[in-house]
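step=encode ok
step=design start
structure_in=
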C-alpha cells in the first residue's frame, strides 16, 4: 500500500536540493568569464584580420572595393592633362541583363581621404540597384597618389571626358546619363554640370556639402573648424610638409573627432559584444575606412579656400580657369539626399545652396528647373549611399 504524499515534505526536500546562492554566483561568474575570454580572443582575431586585410589591399595596388567585376575604359593618366582618376565599366552578373536603350548610370565616389568603392560596396548599393533595373553601370574611381601638378580643374576635365565617352558608347539611348555624386563627388559633379550641362541627365547629389556656412549655433562642429583654426593655412602647411601631398588620413581624423565616443569605444564594444555576427561587417567596412588617399597641395587648398572657408560655389564665385561656376546653369533635374542623422553633411549644408543660388523658389520655377530633396530622420552619412 502506497503512503500518501506529503506536499509540505516534498517542498522542504526540493528547497534543500537546489544549489545555494554561492553556487549560483560561482557558476554565473565562471560562465561570464569564459564567455568574455572567448569574445576577447575572437575580437583580437578580427583586429588581426583587419591589419592583414590592409596589408593585402596595399599589396594589390589598392583597387576599388567593388562587389562587381569591372573593366577599365579610360585612364586619366593618359589624358593631355593627366590625373589619377579613371573610368570603369561594371560587368553585370548573368541574371542582370543590360537594356541598352535605358540611360547609363554613372556613380562617382568621394575623394575625401578614403579610397573608392563605397558606391558599389554591396550588392544592394547604388551600383547594384542600377544593374538590377537594367541600366549599364559605370564607376569613376581614383588611385592613391595624384599626378604631378594635378588640380581640381584637371580632374573636372577628366570627368567631363569620361561622361563624353559613356554617351558615345550608348548611341541606342536617347537620354543622357544619370550621374550620382556621393559626398565630395556631389559638389564636384554640381560644378561640372554647371560648366557642361549638355552632358548630364538627372543628377543625384547624395550627402554632399554645398552650403558650407549653413548650420546651427549648437550643432555641426565641423563648420567651425575653418574659423577656429584660422582659415586655410593649416591645410597648406600640411601639404607643404608632405612634399606637396596632403594625406587623406587628416580628413578621416576630422570625421573621427566628430564622435569620439563612437570612434574610441562604441564601435569596438559593439564588435566585442556581437563578435559572432559583427566581424564580417566590421572587416568589410574597415577595409574601406582604413585606406587613405592623397591630394596635391593645390587641390586641398582650392577646396578649403573656395568651399569650406569661402563658400564660393553656392554663391557663384568659384572659378574654373577663367570661367565662373554658376549653379544656375544646371538645366537637368537635381535630386538631393540628406539626413538629420548625418553629422558630416547635415541638411542645412546639403540644402541651403538652393537658397544661396536661387534666392527664392519662384525663381527656380520661372527658370523651368526641377530640384527635389529627400530627408531622412536618422541615417548617417555613409548609410545614405552605402545602402540601396
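sequence_out=
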Amino acid at each position: 500500500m502506497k503512503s500518501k504524499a506529503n506536499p509540505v515534505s516534498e517542498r522542504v526536500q526540493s528547497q534543500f536540493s537546489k544549489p545555494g546562492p554561492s553556487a549560483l554566483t560561482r557558476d554565473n561568474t565562471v560562465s561570464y568569464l569564459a564567455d568574455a575570454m572567448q569574445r576577447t580572443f575572437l575580437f583580437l582575431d578580427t583586429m588581426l584580420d583587419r591589419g592583414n586585410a590592409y596589408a593585402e589591399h596595399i599589396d594589390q595596388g589598392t583597387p576599388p572595393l567593388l562587389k562587381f567585376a569591372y573593366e577599365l575604359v579610360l585612364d586619366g593618366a593618359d589624358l593631355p592633362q593627366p590625373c589619377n582618376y579613371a573610368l570603369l565599366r561594371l560587368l553585370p552578373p548573368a541574371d542582370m541583363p543590360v537594356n541598352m536603350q535605358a540611360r547609363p548610370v554613372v556613380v562617382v565616389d568621394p575623394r575625401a581621404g578614403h579610397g573608392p568603392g563605397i558606391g558599389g560596396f554591396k550588392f544592394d548599393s547604388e551600383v547594384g540597384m542600377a544593374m538590377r533595373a537594367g541600366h549599364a553601370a559605370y564607376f569613376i574611381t581614383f588611385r592613391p597618389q595624384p599626378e604631378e601638378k594635378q588640380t581640381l580643374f584637371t580632374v573636372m576635365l577628366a570627368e567631363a571626358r569620361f561622361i563624353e565617352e559613356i554617351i558615345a558608347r550608348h548611341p541606342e539611348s536617347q537620354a543622357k546619363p544619370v550621374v550620382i555624386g556621393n559626398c565630395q563627388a556631389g559638389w564636384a559633379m554640381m560644378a561640372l554640370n554647371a560648366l557642361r550641362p549638355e552632358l548630364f541627365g538627372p543628377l543625384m547629389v547624395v550627402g554632399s556639402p554645398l552650403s558650407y556656412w549653413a548650420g546651427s549655433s549648437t550643432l555641426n562642429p565641423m563648420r567651425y573648424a575653418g574659423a577656429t583654426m584660422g582659415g586655410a593655412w593649416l591645410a597648406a602647411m600640411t601639404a607643404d610638409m608632405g612634399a606637396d601631398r596632403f594625406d587623406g588620413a587628416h580628413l578621416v581624423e576630422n570625421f573621427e573627432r566628430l564622435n569620439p565616443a563612437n570612434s574610441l569605444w562604441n564601435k569596438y564594444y559593439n564588435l566585442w559584444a556581437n563578435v559572432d555576427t559583427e566581424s564580417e561587417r566590421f572587416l568589410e567596412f574597415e577595409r574601406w575606412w582604413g585606406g587613405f588617399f592623397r591630394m596635391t597641395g593645390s587641390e586641398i587648398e582650392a577646396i578649403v579656400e573656395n568651399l569650406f572657408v569661402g563658400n564660393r560655389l553656392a554663391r557663384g564665385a568659384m572659378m574654373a580657369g577663367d570661367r565662373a561656376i554658376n549653379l544656375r546653369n544646371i538645366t537637368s533635374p537635381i535630386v538631393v539626399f540628406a539626413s538629420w542623422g548625418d553629422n558630416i553633411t547635415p541638411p542645412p549644408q546639403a540644402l541651403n545652396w538652393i537658397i544661396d543660388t536661387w534666392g527664392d523658389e519662384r525663381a527656380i520655377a520661372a527658370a523651368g528647373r526641377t530640384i527635389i530633396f529627400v530627408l531622412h530622420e536618422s541615417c548617417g552619412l555613409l548609410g545614405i549611399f552605402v545602402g540601396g
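step=design ok
step=annotate ok -> The CA atoms of residues 70 and 91 lie 5 Å apart.
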